[in-house]
Protein 1
Amino acid sequence: MIKVVLADDHPLFREGIKNILHEFGKAIEVIGEAANVNELLAQLAQKQPDIVLTDLNMPGRNGLEGLKELKLLYPEIPVLVLSMYPEDRFSLRVMKVGAYGYLNKGVAPDELIKAVEQIALRRRKYITPEVAELMADNLGRDQDKMPHETLSDREEEIMIKIARGDKISDIANELFLSVHTVHTYRYRILKKLGVKSNVGIGHYAIEHELIE
């Protein structure tokens, strides 16, 4: 029996994934659920799953930061990321952090089952053709990065929130940071993107399809 802990902030999506795992999987059981990173870590402190299925975009802590902490605390538990974002946004980052696979939420049920079984039973990373192509294209390209590709995970998270029009005080509260710290991140973002204002950050994000 493959034991799964599932993390996503949308209850209906979690229910859908559970139904898929039950209907298409031969021996897969969801033994725990979480709606954010803190709940996920609390679940793992009590349970021992064979695999974690988690979204990146959940309330509170950044998903990439949460993934780093998870791998630090529980390096033996493989993680499969299920995200609404296309592979070119985050797949390489999560793989570098230590995830065993990255799937878009639009994936077919049989591929999800295949990924879960390969990761949980064989302890092998699941690489889709799309991710494999990105890995190949990324080889030797560090010198040719776009400005936003030089942002840290936290900087990118704050950049997206600023681009969407969130207030600095609201960002600070949501991420449990001081207003001063968020202003510091904002300054770094402005310098790296080569823009001069929040409006410039917004225009950059829209132009490069970083926000909808």
Protein 2
Amino acid sequence: MTGENSDETGRLRTLLVGVLDAAVTGRADPVPAHRPWPRWLAWTRWIGVGRLPYGLVVALVGIGLTVALTAGSYSLLQTETARRGLHPGDRTLLFSAALVCLPLLLRDRHPLAAWRLSFLAMALVDVGDWLTVPYVPAGSFVAMACLYTVAVRCPRNVTVGAGLISLAGALIKDAQSAPGAILLLLLALLVGYTVRLRTSARRALAEQEKRHQDAEAVLTERQRIARELHDVVAHHMSMIAIQAEAAPYKVAELPDETRTDLAEIRATALDALTELRRVLGVLRSADGAETAPQPGLDRLDELVAHARGTGLAVTEHRAGDLDRLPPGVALTAYRIVQEALSNAMRHAPGSRVRLNAERAGGILRLEIVNGPAPPGRRPTPSPPGGGHGLVGMRERAAMLGGTLAAGPTPEGGFAVTAALPVKDPR
């Protein structure tokens, strides 16, 4: 029972807020800056009217209709009062006719203000002694038009509030004619709210279509970039690998050190091609998501073999379950080892490297320590714009809640250590 009472109280509060918004504080949706002509009025272009701005035509029609309704109401009141032998005065009749019709001028730009004025006019103008009905007929039409526009341009709670006020006003004004008046008011509200729902659905559909077009444009641009990368960068990388492989056969007596360097160049170019193809796959995918399997420590043997192929003397130690790591941890660990070994190849070619990978106590610990380069081996300068690899690895580790440290060792080498938290399955 407490829950039901709470729900009823909430609904009552919502209705009261809606009534307050409709009467005082509510605001209607603004008029669009550029309103297109409705499709059912497309024929007006043949007579020239449809070539004018739609908002201007609506304003002119509103002025003309207001003048016509005011004049018609004034004439009706004059005729009926004269037939009954009443003489309220021409000014009184004109003021009464204008008061109930003028809100139509505000209906398009200020629908809530127009409805409020129309409600007050219908409440204040009493024509019960002048006509056989308690309302000026044109005023009833204006009231319905204003209420319809409120339903089209205002939020639902404001529309409900305006409807409740209008229905209560009809009952208070004249109980005998109230059923017919309420039916007409409900019809205006229903038609207006239906138009609002339809307009909102069209707007949502248009926004969805625009998002779809934007996504298509992004995908098209990604595919263009992918084609350019494939046609230019991939071609040059392939040429580097082919030339590095063919160079030893062009010179009869080539030093072993040069052969090793060329083999390293070829292997590096092939690795770069592999990574480039992976990136191209991401660019070509519809949602930008990577569909190819991400590397992990299950490919650690490949990294070690490649490092040894370049002349590094790698010794490794593994402990714990390194095969069933979460994808994010596995990828980060792979990249850390890859970056550390690449730095050793570049800055300490031919050096001894100690690689430790251990998973214990919910932590994956990595340690890659290389010694100084042996005599006669010179470091390879970093490429322009490089030097961000370790920064990226620190960011990767931090995103997982881990840590990464890198720095020189007392022996003249370099050490990279990382600790990555791992959620062990229960």
